[in-house]
## 1
Amino acid sequence: MIVWLPIAIPLAIALRWHPPKPLSAGQKLPLVLSLYALSPLMLWAFSRIEGVPFSIYGFPWGGSGLLSLAIGLSLGVLGIVILFGIEGWLGWVRWQQNWQKLARLLLPLLVVGLLVSVVEELVFRGFLLNQLQHAYGVWPGAIVSSLVFALLHLVWEGWEAAPQLLGLWLMGMVLVVARWVDGGSLGLAIGLHAGWIWAMASLDSAEIIHYEGANPQWLTGLSKNLLQVE
């Protein structure tokens, strides 16, 4: 964060962002990209200073890691499709026929989803989880790293993100378990995270899903956001 501030402060001034005011999409993108471009470099530098291999953070090198990533990506997308399929069967949502728009968005949103997931998993389920588990144990490390992951979303979205905190924490815990299941590799966690982002962003951007209004918000999320709970 200290290294990023000399980049973030001029950007925030140029973009006319005044924390804790929520960021608009146009303000958020340059700030997020600058931070996410810097984070892997900082982790690599930290690993060199500590004299440990970069692989200690669980980055999925090699064929087995890529296979786990592909499995996670498939499971993430399949889960979202099944969820909305059930909601459609129950009459809570209606599918819009914007398939051409969806097809145009799939590839760029996949790239975005993978980039975001790689960086966030390296930071939260890689570096931060390692440090906390070493200091406090397995489960406290998992709980606290997931809590930090959830709370830091308030930086970008302000208190409007508060209803998402429980959902984000649970999401973080699922991704921690995914790393454990994958033998310490982040491949499965990156794939799941990217699959969720890709599926949700694609459906939202292409305006495929229309809520009918009869859906129980405690199940489907406030403001059409699955992570927001009452």
## 2
Amino acid sequence: MCRSCGAIVGAGEPQCAVCGASTANKPAASSPQQIRPADRETIRFARAVLDRPYKFTIILLILNFFVFLLMWESSGMSSQALWQAFPEPVLAVYGAKLNYLINAPYYQWWRFITPMFVHINLPHVLVNMYSLWMVGPYVEKLYGSAKFVVFWVVTGIAGVVASYLTVRPNLATGSFGRFLFKSLDVPSAGASGALFGLVGVLFVFGIKFRRELPEGFKRAFGTGMLPIILINLFIGFIGRGFIDNAAHLGGLLSGAVLALAVEYRRPGERTSVAVAWRVLQAAALVIVVAGFYKVVRNFNRPVPLSPQQVVHVQQQTFLNFVGALHLLQEQVSRVRDKNDISEVEAITQNVAQIPAPDARGAELRDRLLAILSQMTETVSSGKQVDQQSIGELEKWQEEYFEWFKGAQQNGN
């Protein structure tokens, strides 16, 4: 960006093609012949473009920061959530992309829309909104507000769809596989897919109209966007595993396709915006409103557990139950071998309250409690534990071992 006039400057350019200002931090001493005079056609084109409004860029900035502040408030306004990451339940209720909630049986389709307004933490939203402030006004001024809104929503959704399609654990292997595919269905959010879409629009715009653009804009758009694209893809490769590169590429490609198909309003043209684009703009805004309406409707409803969370809960339930049965068996051994019944009541009550992972486990627990109760009655009457009770315990131990092996094989 030119510090003098705000125009985009192509990578490696020593001076702004619009105003002629040097791009160096300190102007280097040079002869008058080395400073290229500003191109008059570029100046006329730039002034005509820069005079156009960019109100929807500002609206999107405000909306993204507003949603971010709501998420921070829902996270308890803690500094840890602000700088590290919002809790996963907060991301989920505000509409982050989660494949299992989009799929059957939940069908939460709005999660294809809302993630472009949801961010993980403060650095995430600041980087994305700075990028929007740098790129958004140019796209909106070149194409107009109606097309800009359509570009934002369409490329944002395309990025989420690409992210949705690339949750493929079997393909997330190797450097390239982990760059593009994801092994876990974790919350995905951010405006970067739509931002890459705007970059794709400017890239194709500069190439598509290279014969009629002034010299300065040829260097700024088109191939001038390549360093930005390549640097961001390199960052994505380094950060593969936590950066959603599929969303970036989905937005970039969809933006390029839109720019191939869509014309732009040239400076000086006063033709009215086609009714079709006004209709598409209204439809895009309605889609966004509908997405957040669904978020509000479901805000206070519990978020269903993900498959990974279900497995974790099942495993934890199994481990807790097995640990309780282990304590119960130790108590049975103390009653049988030492006639110690001092802690029978307390342990029996605790074990009875532990949830069983399945019906067979609950049956085995009840049988062991019955064996312990029988042994306790025998010891309380001053007698030794009889062989019948010992035989029942040995049979129980065999059946418990078989159940334990089967439960482990089933993933508990």
## 3
Amino acid sequence: MNFRFSDQEKTFREEVQSWIKNELPADWQGVDHEDQFDGQNWPVTQKMAKRLAAKGWLTLAWPKEVRGAGSFHH
């Protein structure tokens, strides 16, 4: 079994890394899973979810017919 990333997966990975670097607030320190809905973190969580959705990355495995990316359907 080959566990290496394909060229397409490498390209996508690089795109995501670049996007995150450019889109997250400069002072963002990260949050725990439980804290993402906390009052202080909630605005960033909402903003990032909307941006991910606009890129089609919020629902990567969902079929395109239901507004997903269809990335994991073969």
